[in-house]
Every structure is written in structure tokens, then in C-alpha cells.
Write a structure and sequence with these properties.
Layout: H1 11-16, H2 25-36, H3 49-59, H4 64-77, H5 81-86, H6 89-96, H7 103-119, H8 127-131, H9 138-149, H10 158-168, H11 177-190, H12 196-210, H13 228-231, E1 249-258, E2 264-268, E3 279-280, E4 283-284, H14 287-297, E5 302-303, E6 311-314, E7 319-328, E8 342-345, H15 357-364, H16 369-378
Parallel strand pairs: 1-7
Antiparallel strand pairs: 1-4, 2-3, 2-8, 5-7, 6-7
Helix pairs in contact: 2-12, 3-4, 3-9, 9-12, 10-12
Bound molecules: iron/sulfur cluster (SF4).
Length: about 375
């Protein structure tokens, strides 16, 4: 296997930037963690496997500061695997609304059901069994084993990849097989046999708080004296940036159909694709299609002539532009059927279902001011 190592800028730098010994990484990080690591996060108080698992899934793609509130609400409602497995998916997605990457919530829910069915309600203790559960990859499984059970298991999440890439000068293209293998090998060699829970937390904390992507604080870093990137002045070159593919733009028309009592029509998204299983106003490719739906399904509900200003949302692989157009149903009961996964959503007493954040913000704009005031008073 070919491993690309960052080339130092000069002979002096080359001498200075020899890769560090793997065995020195854990002691340095464990030492640093006592004063520099994070100790007050809600999932650190009780390291039950279920709690670690939920926190690891929420922390994928999401900053700690955002996760904390979601985590606490989630734990209050679903304190254990059995409670999560027994809950309707809509309620799980409801508590996830605004956190994004909703596949994580669907996988969490499905995995909880498998754990109850196949493992007596306990998360398995073997890496291979954990990685067979939906949404649990090799690094997440290892984090559960290391943090909850103190077992020697190697993690390699995005933050850890960045730390190792810089500390050891691993400069291969991110995402390629060779680079991934080099990083896994490096991570394996750094993982200690003892105090593995502290080490795991420490390397995650270092990546999240010190060796950050854009503003690494090398002056505070316990790996500074041996770090290849620091010593060869390549901190901002490692790891190399991923090539960014062009981002297509998709446009949809969002039909904001409301009833006389103010309820708005929502439709459950298909179980695959973006916002899968969440609820949004019905989406159409054109105004004509939206108008036809009003005529045929909503007893001739009238579309407003003027569309509302478009709402933009950025997904990982594309941009979405939604043009909302309002329609008013004169009949209180329009013909909607369960089979179409449609429901009338009260803005006064919203159902506990999953609504993506941009849609929730759009719906909030439809709430009359007096209702909004009333809801505000009710909320903590
Ligand atoms: S010295 Fe700087 S670049 Fe190297 S691991 Fe520490 S924070 Fe990251």
C-alpha cells in the first residue's frame, strides 16, 4: 500500500518533521484531557451504552453546541432502547426536527427495534454485531465499546482523521481507499491498551476544540512538539481538501393549502430520498401540477395568483429552491386519503410529527400573531 506523507518545505523542516512514535500519542492526549478536555457534556455523566450510542449518532455531522438540547429532550422522552423501539417513527422524527440528516433518526429507531428483537434490549458487545445494526459504522461501534465498556477499540471519525493526518503528515486524497487504510492503521497503532475510554474522548475532544479544521490552536496542543504538519508548516494544507463536485439546483413548488380553521395540508415524504418520512406541504414540479391537485383533490381550492418568495435550502449534494404558493379550501373537509399520507396540520396545536426546519420556519410565518403569542407563552 502506498501512503502519501506530506513533503516538508525544506531539508531543515524534513529533519524536524519526522513522524512521531505512535506510542507517545495516547499518554500525551490522556494527560492533556485532564485539564484541556470536555467533562461536562450530558452523555458523559452516565456512560451507559445506549446513551453513548445516541450521542455518537447525534454528533455525526453536528456540532456539540447544537446537539446538547436535542440530546436532553431525546433522553427525557426515550430514556432507554425499549422506549425508543416502542415509539412511533413520527415521534422520533419530531424530536429530531431541526437536527438534520434525518436518516440518522430512522436508523436509530430501526436499530433500537432490532436490539429489542434480537439482543434482549441490550446493545451487543461485539464490534461485528454492532456494525450490523442500521446506522452504526466501524468508528461509531468502536466509540460505544471504548467509551461505555472501556474496551480497546479504535475510532476514526472526521475529527480524528484530521488530527492523525496532521500529526503524522498523512497527505493522501481524503476518501480514497489507500488514505482510509493508512489512517485506520495509524489510528490502530495509537490506540492504547489501557485507559482507552479517556484516550478516545481525548482525541475526539482535541479534534473538536483544538485541532479544528479552519483555526487550529497549535499553541495549546499536546502533540505540538512532534506534529508533522506543525513542524513543517503545513497545518493548513493537511488534510487536503476534498474536490467539490458541482451542486445542482432543484426547484419545486410547495403547495400551502389551508382550511378555514387555519390547518395546513402536509404530506409524508417517501421513505427514501431527502427528508424521507418527514412531513412537508405537497411538492410539485410546476404551478400547473399544483393547480391540478387543488382541482382534483381539494374540491377546487383556489391558488393565490402571487407565489410567496422562494425559500432556499442547502443539502449535502444539491441546493433546493422551494416556491411556496398558497391555496384556500372553502370546505372544512377536503378529500384526502390515508393512502396518500396527507394530514391537516394544526398550527395552533401541532401534531408530534417530523417537520424539517425550513418547513417549520415557513409554517411559523403562517401563524397569526395572536396564536404565535399564545404558543410562545406556553413554551418554556
Ligand atoms: S499541533 Fe496543531 S496541527 Fe498538529 S495536531 Fe496539534 S493542533 Fe493539530
Amino acid at each position: 500500500m502506498t501512503v502519501t506523507v506530506a513533503a516538508p518545505r525544506s531539508a531543515t523542516a524534513a529533519a524536524a518533521a519526522a513522524a512521531p512514535s505512535h506510542t507517545l500519542i495516547a499518554p500525551a492526549l490522556i494527560d492533556w484531557h485532564a485539564h484541556g478536555g470536555r467533562h461536562e457534556l450530558p452523555w458523559q455523566h452516565d456512560r451507559a451504552p445506549y446513551r453513548v450510542w445516541v450521542s455518537e449518532i447525534m454528533l455525526q455531522q453536528t456540532q456539540v453546541g447544537t446537539v446538547v438540547g436535542y440530546y436532553q429532550r431525546f433522553m427525557q422522552r426515550f430514556p432507554n432502547v425499549t422506549a425508543l423501539a416502542a415509539a412511533p417513527l413520527d415521534e422520533v422524527l419530531h424530536l429530531w426536527s431541526g437536527l438534520g440528516y434525518y436518516a440518522r433518526a430512522r436508523h436509530l429507531h430501526r436499530a433500537a427495534q432490532q436490539i429489542v428483537r434480537d439482543h434482549g434490549g441490550e446493545l451487543p458487545l461485539e464490534l461485528a454485531q454492532l456494525t450490523r445494526l442500521p446506522g452504526i459504522g466501524r468508528s461509531t461501534a468502536a466509540a460505544i465499546l471504548a467509551l461505555a465498556h472501556g474496551r480497546r477499540a479504535t475510532i476514526l471519525d472526521g475529527n480524528v482523521k484530521r488530527v492523525l493526518s496532521r500529526a503524522f503528515g498523512i497527505a493522501g486524497r481524503p476518501g480514497t481507499h489507500a488514505t482510509e487504510q493508512a489512517l485506520w492503521q495509524c489510528a490502530e497503532r495509537c490506540t492504547p491498551s489501557t485507559d482507552v475510554a479517556t484516550y478516545t474522548q481525548a482525541i475526539m475532544d482535541l479534534g473538536a476544540t483544538v485541532c479544528t479544521r479552519t483555526r487550529p490552536q497549535c499553541a495549546l496542543c499536546p502533540l505540538r512538539t512532534t506534529c508533522v504538519a506543525y513542524r513543517s508548516d503545513r497545518v493548513h494544507e493537511l488534510p487536503p481538501a476534498r474536490p467539490r463536485p458541482a451542486r445542482p439546483l432543484r426547484r419545486v413548488v410547495l403547495l400551502l393549502a389551508s382550511r378555514a380553521d387555519g390547518a395546513v395540508l402536509l404530506q409524508r415524504r417517501p421513505s427514501g430520498g431527502v427528508w424521507a418520512s418527514l412531513w412537508t406541504p405537497p411538492q410539485f414540479d410546476s404551478l400547473e401540477e399544483a393547480a391540478l391537485f387543488c382541482t382534483t383533490r381539494l374540491r377546487g381550492a383556489q391558488l393565490e395568483r402571487e407565489a410567496m418568495p422562494p425559500v432556499a435550502h442547502r443539502f449535502t449534494h444539491f441546493d433546493l429552491e422551494m416556491t411556496p404558493v398558497r391555496a384556500h379550501c372553502t370546505q372544512l373537509v377536503a378529500r384526502i386519503a390515508e393512502v396518500d399520507a396527507l394530514l391537516w396540520y394544526s398550527l395552533r396545536t401541532p401534531a408530534r410529527i417530523g417537520v424539517p426546519a425550513p418547513i417549520a420556519m415557513l409554517l411559523a410565518r403562517l401563524v397569526p400573531a395572536r396564536v404565535a403569542r399564545h404558543r410562545h407563552q406556553l413554551e418554556p
